[in-house]
């Protein structure tokens, strides 16, 4: 973090509060003021994205969605305040509570899934304010499946011409048949699904998704509410894209326990029923080895994000960590197919 303290105090002057102490906490700032405890967060610098996010917050307020930290209006009547350097900030209440425990608590999984369903319901009918532009991932999944599969196959073929294989190469060769099987199955299920119909429905309903659904982006408050936070990556997409990310995070912590997925899907459907065609597309998203493919591409092509400074040893450890889940993942996928009648 490490923002200039002067900049932070200048930003806070946009709101009618009297701050006393500002401390960094992960990717936000905790603001202690005479009036209470607040969260100051920097959001997207792109003006069109910041304007769209401002519209998102206003839309959720109008729809009566209270399971998030909604921003305060600045003294200029805006939900987003901007510095002279073009940095955008929002100020919300500091949600007091704890992070859900996906690994050990069924009730936390149910609570988060319920909040996500309510969030998706509240998103309907959203039109960005004039000049605002929302991220758009509608109709992107098929091309992503295809391009990643093509790249992984190409990288494996390249190893046939490499005179010496390093330890990552050998691990990739070891897991490649399974990676290929999963990628091809996921691609086939998606290609024969009603994905296009789901995209059109989302487009007509003008819904949006959170974009980064994970345990870290929910808070169980002291009043017992499960609240979703960090709306920075909100985008147009089908709602099962969010469900896929929720399940991916939960299943990683539950060793791919199928009953955990059932809890999530049943809790979500109790609020907003899922159609069979949505379950089919969800299966395709879970089946496709996104994490493995992403890791391989980062090793051979471009190291970025968290992996930018990783050593080769770290990449090898991560590849084995993912690859060694083969048995539990296959068992999960088999249970999912049988329970929800997914045809291959």
Brief summary of the model shown:
The chain has 344 residues and is of the alpha+beta class. It is built from twelve helices and ten strands. Helix 3 packs parallel to helix 8 (258-271), helix 4 (141-159) packs antiparallel against helix 5 (167-191) and helix 7 (239-253) runs antiparallel to helix 8 (258-271).
Break the fold down into its secondary structure elements and pairings.
Blueprint: H1 5-12, E1 19-25, E2 28-33, E3 36-43, H2 47-62, E4 81-82, E5 88-93, E6 97-98, H3 106-123, E7 135-136, H4 141-159, H5 167-191, H6 195-205, E8 218-221, E9 226-228, E10 235-236, H7 239-253, H8 258-271, H9 276-287, H10 290-300, H11 312-323, H12 326-340
Parallel strand pairs: 7-10
Antiparallel strand pairs: 1-2, 2-3, 3-5, 4-5, 6-8, 8-9
Helix pairs in contact: 3-7, 3-8, 4-5, 4-10, 5-9, 5-11, 7-8, 7-9, 9-12, 10-11
The helix content, as a percent range, equals: 40-55%
CA distance, first residue to last residue? 48 Å
Named CATH architecture of the largest domain:
Alpha-Beta Complex
Beta strand %: 5-15%
CATH H-level homologous superfamily name of the largest domain: Aminoglycoside phosphotransferase (APH), C-terminal lobe
Task: Find the CATH topology of the largest domain.
Answer: Aminoglycoside 3'-phosphotransferase, Chain: A, domain 2
Q: What is the structural class?
A: alpha+beta
